[in-house]
Amino acid sequence: MQAEGDLATVGGHFQQGMALPVPRADSGLDDFLRHAILNQPQVVAAYYDWAASVRKITVERSLPDPSLTLSADITRTVESLMPGLMMDLPGPGKLQAAAGVATAESQAKYFVFEGKVLEVAFVLKKAYYELHFLDGKIRVNQETLRLANDTETLAQTQNEAGKVTLQDVLRAQMEQDRLVSEIENLEDTRVPMIAQFKAALGLKRSDPAPPVPLRFQSTPLNLASEDLISSALARNPRLRAMEAEVQGADAALRLAYRAGVPDFSLGIEADVKSTPTMMTPTLSVTLPIWRDKIAAQIAAAQEAKAASEARVSAEEIGLAVEFSEKSFTVREAGRSLTLLQDRLLPKARQSLEVAQISYASGKVDFLNLLEAQRTLRELQLAEVEARLQRELALAELSLVVLGKPPAGSPVLSSTGIPKEEKP
Fold it and tell me: Any bridge partners for residue 343, and if so which?
């Protein structure tokens, strides 16, 4: 059975990876992703939900258990004793239709599992990128603090020369105090972020804090490809789960049409008290005479299928919108980075240099120098934020929208809907 083979394939990944050690700081991001996927309880729970649904296919396609019977004729003594065997036989096509429903439900469960794999991978990447760019924000503020220290020294020199008042020195010190407080707040932000990173790896509260990958690894994705949206529609696990629900609704409809087919019971009894032994065969047939009930079953199945098809259409529309929004975010962040790196930041640095020279020569006041310093800091932080938003959008596009699993993920390479199981 294909479903059991798929389960064995995926289960092999879990057997090999459940005891993986936490990767080291010099490990690649893919190692952290694999550890998170194999150890995250949400993924493990979704896997066992799928495994249980695979086992259900065998149950649904199997014949009912036979029954042993015993009857007797008794007056003053046992006149006859008749052990027997009884077997229920569902009407033609019913077992096949029931197995089709279970197969589709199992396939939907698989795509829920695959969706959890991708969701966990995105949560880990998000925590990783936020930690990485938090360091970038801290570096910007530390660099600005060094500039503020230089500005204070310059203001003290100017004050000692009688060119400015003590107010400039105090303003420079106030700016340093604000920056020190901002750095402390950012450093403190690392604590909940490390907790999020630890949780994304599936580590318990009692486990030590994990290392953070030292090497930065971006999410490669060519947005210029015209096949991306087609790939999203073909691969996205949310959409595939809904398509499996349509297949299940179709199988349920076929099963509902079989409600008008009678079921059979065959049996045989042997009177062990008689000589020769008398055999009594029995046959019973159900009479599906309540046509309004059958019609209601068929109508309900038709409506359930229509609802499933409508949900698929709605998901396709929503997926196209989500793809468009995330693609726009990537392009917007890219344009912002180009503007910042090629034009605004070079000019801001040049403006600060001019302000420093002009302040030293008494051509501009301290507020102009402070404004130039703050402008450079704001643009540097904007660059860090644009890079963060770009990476988050790329990761979400790749994992959540396009459904591309990380290397080594415990997912099937082929995710076609399997054929219905036959009894």
Answer: none
